[in-house]
Amino acid sequence: xxHHTPWQDRSVVVTGGTRGIxxxxxxLFARRGAAVLxxxxxxxxxxxAADGLARSTGGRVxxxxxxxxxxxxxxxxxxxxxxxxxxxxxxxxxxxxFPEKPLREMTAADIxxxxxxxxxxxxxxxxxCLPAMERAGRGRVVLTSSIxxxxxxxxxxxxxxxxxxxxxxxxxxxxxxxxxxxxTVNAVLxxxxxTESLAALGEEYVRAMTASIPLGxxxxxxxxxxxxxxxxxxxxxxITGQTLTVDGGQTVPESLDAFSTASLPxxx
Length: 268
Description:
Layout: E1 11-14, H1 20-31, E2 35-40, H2 43-57, E3 60-65, H3 71-85, E4 90-93, H4 108-136, E5 139-144, H5 158-178, E6 183-190, H6 196-200, H7 203-211, H8 221-231, E7 243-246
Parallel strand pairs: 1-2, 1-4, 2-3, 4-5, 5-6, 6-7
Helix pairs in contact: 1-2, 1-8, 3-4, 4-5
C-alpha cells in the first residue's frame, strides 16, 4: 500500500508566496491540509494573500512580510513558522525577481539585486530553517530555479540566469551537508508559467513561447506546485541533490522544426 504524506501534520514555508508560482505552491499545500506560512516583501500584501488563500482553500495559511535579502528578517520568518506550527518541515525557497536588462546597460546594482534576492535569499532561507528542521528530525527543501541559466539562456536575462544556475551549485553542496540530518534538498526548473509577470511581457511573447512548447500550452502554477509537492513528500525520501524540469518539453527539441508534426508522415 502506498504511504501518503499526512500533510495535516506538516508545516510549510513558501517565500515569495503572494503571487505566481509561489502562490500556486502555497495553495496546493493548503488544500492538502498543511499549515502554510507565505511571505512577500510587503507585509500587507503577504497577509492579504494569505487571507485569500485561507478562504479559497479552507486551509491554514498565514502571511508575513519578509525581505529575503535581510538575514534577520529571514531568521524571524523561520522563528515565526516554528512558533505558529510547532515545527518547520518544508521550505519552498521560491522568492525571485527577473528584471530584463541587457548586459551593456546592466549596473552593479542591477546585478546585486538579482543575486541578493534569487541566490543569496535562497541560501539565507535554507540556513534560517535548518535549526527547526534539525529539531523536527526531518526536512524538505525545494528551490524554485528555472530552465533559464541551468539549461537555457535568454538575451536580457544573463544576471537572472546566473542566479538560477547558482542555486543549483548551492543545492548540491547543501544536499550533501544536510543528508545526515534526514533533510533533502532539491529544485524544480519551471519553463514558462502563466503568472502576472508573464502576462506583463505581452501577448506576442506568450504566443511565441507557446509555439516553442511541445505540449502546446504555457504551464500553470499548479503544474509546478505538484512537482514541488512530490519532492516535499515522504515518497521522495530517497531523492536529494536533484532537479526536476517542469516545462512542457520546451528544452527537449534542438530547434522549432524538431517537433513540427507537419514534417512527419501521416498515419500510424
